[in-house]
Amino acid sequence: MASAAIVWDENLLGYDMGESHPLTPVRLDLTMRLARELGVLDGISLVRPVPADETLLAAIHDREYLAAVRAASAIDTEPASELPSRFGLGTVDNPIFPDMHESSALIAGASVAAAREIVEGRVDRAVNIAGGLHHAMADRAAGFCVYNDCVAAIAWLLDQGLERIAYLDVDVHHGDGVQAAFQYDPRVLTMSVHQHPMTLWPGTGGPADVGGPGAEGRAVNLALPPGTDDAGWQRAFHAVVPSLLAAFEPQLLVTQCGVDTHREDPLADLALTVDGHRAIYRTLRDLAETHAGGRWLALGGGGYSPFRVVPRSWTHLLAVLLDRDLAPETTIPAGWRAHAARLAPPDTPIPVSMSDDGHGDASGDAGFPAWDGEVSHRVDRALLATRRAVFPLFGLDPEDRRD
Q1: Residue among 319, 244, 234 at smallest CA distance from 270
Q2: What is the DSSP-derived secondary structure letter of residue 169?
Q3: Measured distance CA(327)–CA(355) in Å, rounded
Q4: I need a labelling partner for 144 at 20 to 30 A (CA). Which of 95, 105, 320, 394 fits?
Q5: Considering Cα of 357, then 360, then 361, then 364, what sign does the dihedral take?
Q6: Please, which residues bridge with residue 222 across strands?
Q7: Which residues face 142 on adjacent strands?
Q8: What are phi and psi of 338, to 5 degrees?
Q9: Which GO MF terms are attached to this record (predicted)?
């Protein structure tokens, strides 16, 4: 059984963009409460993070941007209207909130702390569910993300001497900030499985986007059509990702585990279930064992159904990471349901089990069936576009379904 660390502190709830903002910290609090009530965290000592320091933040973000975030955090003395718009601050997506710099730095520090637990040999796996802020760019906030903790953790790992890191993003939105940070670095393979950019913000991450000069093939984008369900998602994922991981041979797997792929998520259009998320996490664990020596750093991400989806999906993530997998039919404790009902909008149905009664991994075989010369299914077209763009750069045959 692999060892694992959970990085958590109540202060991580301070990343709060406001009561009406989709990225509510309630989803994190409810996740930790549910994991505790189900016994997932029994006997686990939580790792307490410290904020990322100026040196680390300046390695991944422009100093002028860092200064703007610090100024914005002092909202009593620096009105948002005076901030240059180029920093992406003070917008509907990225509103100013108290202690914005401090809470953002703590999330980045938490992801680095999780990476440190692995690199220093205390555990094989570690998770920061508050992390996964993958849209933040070097010079601006974007998509609810102020500092990019994913980039911070990977940059720190590279500084420790790692030479091959695979980053795998299963959020419904393209992992654009992470790809941008490492698009010219052949040491980092960024893979993003997301809704097609023609149908969803940020509008990037097409299959032809394969990395910059000197790092061709180090960016992999699998763009799925709206309506893709558990079976289609698994079909596409298994036709692309395992072969590339085997070819790249990473020393550590970093995953961004956004759950806004769910069929009930209000901000996107894929159709996965909580059961599908559980299957994804179990697949990620297997891939880390097979291709990364068991070393797996898991981060949170998007997910905007805070009462029905996020707590269940990420409790499954914590359970899988700890090798304490929960059966889908597990009943949710009455105490948690009552607490969630008090916080939720009126008439919100609170789930009673850890399942949506879905099959999760009902894709059949891990690849795809023999072709008849016509790839008609939209998911097949998506996965083939990615294979044809990237596989030859790794010496793989995109038409060989054994890959």
Answers
A1: 234
A2: E
A3: 8
A4: 320
A5: positive
A6: 193
A7: 145
A8: -65, -40
A9: histone deacetylase activity
Question: Is the pLDDT confidence value at 369 over 90?
Answer: no
238 in active site: no
Topology (CATH level 3) of domain 4-394: Arginase; Chain A (3.40.800)
Model pTM? Answer: 0.94
* Token duo for residue 277: 């998320």
- Residue 142: phi and psi, rounded to 5, are -160, 145
DSSP strands (E only) in 196-267: 219-224, 252-256
Rounded to whole angstroms, what are the CA distances from 185 to 85, 117, 176, 182, 207? 29, 24, 15, 5, 19
- Using DSSP's 3-state secondary structure scheme, residue 21 falls into coil
Domain boundaries, the chain: 4-394
Catalytic residue, from 101, 135, 174, 196: name it.
Answer: 135
Distances 52 to 89, 112, 121, 246, 322 between C-alpha atoms, Å? 20, 8, 21, 32, 26
Residue with the bigger pLDDT between 360 and 59: it is: 59
CB neighbours of 280 closer than 8 A, spacing ≥ 6?
170, 233, 234, 237, 257
Check residue 400 and give its pLDDT: 86
Model pLDDT, residue 370: 42
Residue 221 near residue 194 (C-beta atoms within 8 A): yes
In 62-187, beta strands by DSSP E: 125-128, 165-169
Token pair belonging to 398: 């995109």
Question: Going along 202-295, which residue ranges are E strands?
Answer: 219-224, 252-256
pLDDT of residue 358: 64
| pLDDT confidence tier of residue 184, bands split at 50, 70 and 90 | very high
Q: Per-residue pLDDT tens for 100-154?
A: 999 999 999 999 999 999 999 999 999 999 999 999 999 999 999 999 999 999 9
| Neighbour tally for 315: CB within 10 Å | 29
Which of 89, 101, 10, 95 has its CA nearest to residue 51?
101
The answer to whether the beta carbons of residues 297 and 289 sit under 8 Å apart is: no
| Span 210-234, average pLDDT | 96
